[in-house]
Amino acid sequence: MADVIPIRSTVLHEQVARKLRTMLVEGRIPAGAKLNERELSERLQVSRTPLREAIRQLAAEGLVMLLPHRGAVAIELDEVEIAHSFELLAALEGLSGELAAQRIADAELQAIRALHFEMMAAFTRRDLSAYYRLNAQIHAAINAAAKNPVLARTYAQTNARLQALRFRSNQDERKWKRAMKEHSQMVDALAARDAAGLRALLITHVNNKRDVVLEMMRAGTLAMTSKG
Fold it and tell me: What is the pTM of this model?
């Protein structure tokens, strides 16, 4: 029987959405799977009303699709969609890094450094779930430091569709180590206010993720289902 995941919140649907988002990213709800409202309601210990609100929120983010006569289904991208989405994401990440290096405040830089140290600790523990959560926070913080709300909205929408794939790309130990090294270089470039350098690093970082995902997909080793 699946573990019960209790939720206590005054803004219930937002917490439900956060739990569902994590389940989708980590493959506990596989790509292409239907979101069973009865099972999720029992597992999360919430009524159907906040659950449905959360599912609509995830649909707006692009993580699930609402299909007639079938309900909500976790998105499943084909190889061409993945390549195109990563191509756009690389450009967005590069621009956000360039602008962040020019506009970041000292307090924002220190917050990113703190997240980076936490992420290093998660990497040392090989705690992939914590590592990815912190990793996503770092990328979001760099994006926020760019101080361009239109860019932030476009980035969030594009990145949402790729989160599950980015998470799985770290399941290769050697490539996970490379990603960790790239993050250290990003923080250094940000601290140096090296706009061109950070742009190049972020584009390379995202393209490396794309290559890992496509390689795993073609080899049939991309784990798109939960390991239990």
Answer: 0.78
Q: Which residue type is seen at 181?
A: K
Q: What sign does the CA torsion over 132, 134, 137, 141 have?
A: negative
Per-residue pLDDT reduced to its tens digit, 91-112: 999 999 999 999 999 999 999 9
Domains of the chain and any CATH numbers: 12-74 (1.10.10.10), 79-219 (1.20.120.530)
Shortest CA distance to 109 belongs to which of 199, 207, 194? 194
Type of residue at 44:
L
What is the token pair recorded at 28? 């506990």
* The CA-based dihedral angle spanning residues 215, 158, 164, 116, taken in that order and rounded to the nearest 10 degrees: 100
Residue 221: how many other CB atoms lie within 10 Å? 11
Q: Give me the DSSP letters along 48-74.
A: HHHHHHHHHHHHHHTSEEEETTTEEEE
Report which residue type is found at 18: R
Give the E-state strand segments of 45-163 in sequence order: 64-67, 71-74
Q: CA-CA distances (angstroms) from residue 171 to 126, 131, 176?
A: 10, 12, 7
* 19, containing H or E segment: helix 12-25
Does 196 score more than 60 pLDDT?
yes
Report residue 6's pLDDT band, with 50, 70 and 90 as the boundaries: low
- In angstroms and rounded to an integer, the radius of gyration of the C-alpha atoms of the chain is 18
For the chain, percent of residues with pLDDT exceeding 90:
56
